[in-house]
Amino acid sequence: MGKKSLEDLVQRELVKMQAFGQKRHDFKMDGEKSPYIHSYATYETYLKQCLQFASWCKENYGCKTPLACASYIKEYLQECQDQGNSAATLSTKGAAIAKLYGEEKNRLGFNFPPVERAGITRDRDVKPAPNAMYQTARDFVAATGLRDSKELAKLQVKDVYRDNGTGRLMVHVNQGKGGRPREATVVRAGEKVVLDMLAGKTGNELVFKGFSNNSLTENQLHAFRAQYASDRYRELEADGIKISKHYGPNDIYHCRKDQAGEHYQKAIMEIVSNDLGHSRISVIAQSYLWKR
Question: Coiled-coil regions in this chain (predicted)?
């Protein structure tokens, strides 16, 4: 057999790390992060970023193996920054490359700029929905907080249920971010949207059957996850929620810089974060609660 191309070698290394559907926590050792990739979505992102890095190394230095590319990580990231890549994009690139080499991002030798709320502008300028199908997907996400094709496309009718204890309409996500399952609470104002989507469908049938991947992924749905986060926060605030798993009524999150003076209850933030499939409350403060 002939020699493998640089791109093939990069992909092979990332394939070795696949642990889809397995919990990240089960692989953590001695406080270190899991060495594996736990969701296909993350794998796709990391593969894309690592192939871009490998292509740059091959074009500029003739590299033929991932090992040969390792010497140019800092230079590559610096060039990306000089070209105007945002702090969030640089962080994603760094995470992908770090995973390829089994290293921590902060040990790559590059000084990553902090990811700040003001610099996160994903889907904040939303275009009008081009048709009813797009609008339906947007309304559903605003009601449930689900991600685009990674979660919506796999959602089955049986995954939507009424909680016996609270009476709330819930959505079970089998495999969310990091391969983790979760239960997302449908906002009260969005229950009709969800139930209308289920009408006439049963059991294992896909809720979004007939929707193309493009109609889901190219729909600026992150903005509607932000809408969900804000509505869910206000709903919990009105319900008088003061306590969550890790936080009490006196635990307050104080925003800084462009949002100085804003503050949130950490207990509510934790609940909303869990609904969205995030483990850190700082993520929703930076990326989701801008519509509050």
Answer: none
pLDDT tens string 11-50: 999 999 998 877 766 666 555 678 888 888 789 899 999 9
The token pair at 201 is 């469908």
Question: Rounded mean pLDDT of the chain?
Answer: 86
Q: Listing from the earlier edge strand, what are the strands of the sheet with 182-185?
A: 160-162, 169-173, 182-185
Tokens 């894309």, residue located = 48
- Which residues, 6+ apart, have CB-to-CB distance to 25 below 8 Å? 34
Give pLDDT tens digits for 11-20: 999 999 998 8
What whole-number distance in Å separates Cα of residue 173 and Cα of residue 98?
28
Separation of alpha carbons 250 and 243, rounded Å? 9
Note the pLDDT of residue 291: 53
For residue 236 the two structure tokens come to 């919990």
Angle between helical axes of 132-144 and 191-198 (0-180°, round to 10): 120
Q: How far apart are CA 70 and CA 86, in angstroms?
A: 22
First-to-last alpha carbon distance for the chain, in angstroms, is: 58
Structural domains present in the chain: 6-115 (1.10.150), 132-288 (1.10.443)
Please give the Cα distance from 167 to 140 (Å, whole number): 19
